[in-house]
Structure formats: structure tokens, C-alpha cells
Amino acid sequence: MHKTLIVYYSLFQNTKNLALEIAKQTGGTIRELIPNKNYSFDYNTAAKEVRNQITRGFCPELISGNESIDDYQTIFIGTPNWFKTLAPPVMSFIKQHDFTGKTIIPFCTHGGGGFCKIENDIARECSKSLILPGIAVNGIVASEEVTKWLETIGYEL
């Protein structure tokens, strides 16, 4: 059996809840990405901070979650959909690791925008990996939805 890692960034707990459900169903190791500077808990202020970072291509330093991925073959990468792409802490994680030969499975939470560019951005950064179809969840995470998705992509427990 291959080792599975579920790595995610979550500001308002939505992506965390999805990551926890994936970990529960796969038995994978969960790892939260924590940037060295937290975003504002006020939505409008956080949105301005994030938009500025994405526009500049800024990748914050991670103080937690950036440990080695060498022992994992399958890596679920989770992010909120922020301005149609990955949250900057997730991009930091991706840019700091070599995913060659690994299986990458994206997941995101959103407020109506779906994946937008997230899957393509992950595929571009992890070009030497096998990228499986991800799941984009709007609202409450339903365990049945995750189960069906894992079956659809052929994830074996």
C-alpha cells in the first residue's frame, strides 16, 4: 500500500473540513500549511491581502506543513479558490517540493467558482506527476460526495 498525504491551507475552516474528510476516508496523513504571517480574519481585508500577493506572485514562507514529501506517493493538495487560483501558501508548498513520479490529487472549496484555474495551475507546477481529477466543494462537505469522488478516480484504500 502506498503512503498518502493530505496537505491543505484553510483560512475559514472550509478547506480544512474537506481535508479532514479525505483523511478519514483514505487513512492518509494530514498536514496543514501555516504561513509565517496570518491573513486578516476580516474577509474584506484578507481579500485585499490575497489579491495583492497573487498579483505579485508572492509565495509566503511556511512555518508549518512544509516538511519532506519523500515518503509519500499520493498527495492530495487542498486550497480555497482565491481569485480563481491557489491560495499563496499552497503555491509556496508546491514550489518548494519535487513531485516527480508522484500522484497529485487536487481539491478545493469555493463560493461558487469551482476550480477555475486551480487544477491547471497545479498541473503546470507538477508537470512530472500524474494528476488525477479533483473535487471542488461549495458549502458543507458531504461524506457521500467524497466517497463517490474517490471511487470515480479509482483511489484504493
**Whole-number count of domains:** 1
User: Number of DSSP strands?
Assistant: 8
CATH superfamily membership: Flavodoxin domain
Rg from C-alpha positions? 14 Å
- Strand percentage lies at 15-25%
**CATH architecture title:** 3-Layer(aba) Sandwich
Low-confidence spans? none
Order of helices and strands: EHEEHEEHEHEEH
Mean pLDDT: 94
Helix content: 25-40%
**What name is given to the CATH topology?**
Rossmann fold
Explain what you see:
The radius of gyration is 14 Å and the shape is globular. The longest helix is centred in the first third of the chain and has 14 residues, at 43-56. The protein has one domain (4-152): Rossmann fold (3-Layer(aba) Sandwich), CATH 3.40.50.360. With 157 residues, it is an alpha/beta fold. It has helices spanning 14-26, 43-56, 88-95, 118-125, 143-152; strands spanning 4-8, 29-32, 34-35, 62-64, 74-80, 103-110, 130-131, 135-138. It is built from five helices and eight strands, in the order E-H-E-E-H-E-E-H-E-H-E-E-H. The mean pLDDT is 94. Strands 1, 2, 5, 6, 7 and 8 form a six-stranded parallel beta sheet that branches. A two-stranded antiparallel ribbon has the order 3-4.
